[in-house]
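User: Transketolase, Streptomyces poriferorum:
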Amino acid sequence: MDTMRDRFIATTTQLLDEDPRLALVLAEISRDGFGRAERDHPDRVVNVGIREQLLVGAGAGMALTGMRPVLHTFASFLVERPFEQVKLDFGHQGVGGVLVSAGGSYDWPAGGFTHMAPGDVALMDTLEGWSVHVPGHPDEAETLLREAAAGDGRVYVRLSLQSNDRGRPVGGAGGFTTVREGADGVVVAVGPMLDNVLAATEGLYVTVLYATTVRPFDGRGLRRAAGARATADVVIVEPYLAGTSTGAANDALAALPHRILGLGVAREELRRYGQMDEHLAAHGLDPRGLRDRISGFLGG
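Assistant: Predicted structure for Transketolase:
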């Protein structure tokens, strides 16, 4: 199976052929994959080099001329390093564009903490008007990318090497999808965390919701899943900073007594390279770690 990043390259290359409004701005990362697109569309495929602030500024400048820019590099260099440009050049100027990251929270542990961005979604959450997509499979990434490229708004698409075994229908209104139903609690699995959540909750009588769009947050879908219970127990499992969406869930359930457990990447920096699976286990995001914490929270 191809990766989400592979699918991003193939899909964007095709979209550049089809849509003269589309432009691609790179900062060296993934440039090799866009060789044909760069040759075919030299005026709309721009590599600025390792200059991430310029990456964002150039993309926003293109948007001011009426183009639809797609900006791409690792999440730590797309969101964290040029955050001021994201805030001002897109948000303050009121223009749209598509930010597509790679690397996730720890896709390449050997790259060290400079190439990890567990706080990217929380940081984007401080800005107004951004949609945030976290696909869990290359098929979902393609659908969300096509919708983002065809639109006019500000969109962040977070890609990862971690992937579920199969893709699920996504897009459209961006609401949560019910994968399992149960009465003992609600577990929201974000993007590539779904397979681990399903394994962890096997035999537990809980509702499992699947989210590939986390902003806007589907508060209505969460309230519907909570149902008419006197109280609601909710666990949110995210592949980035733990607790990123607990505030949004609290707001959605304000009229209902509830408890929320936010699971994700801990704030503690892991200072050994290891592999991605070892980072998942260290943060308790593997099936065993999730099982212990979810069942403990739900009291069973």
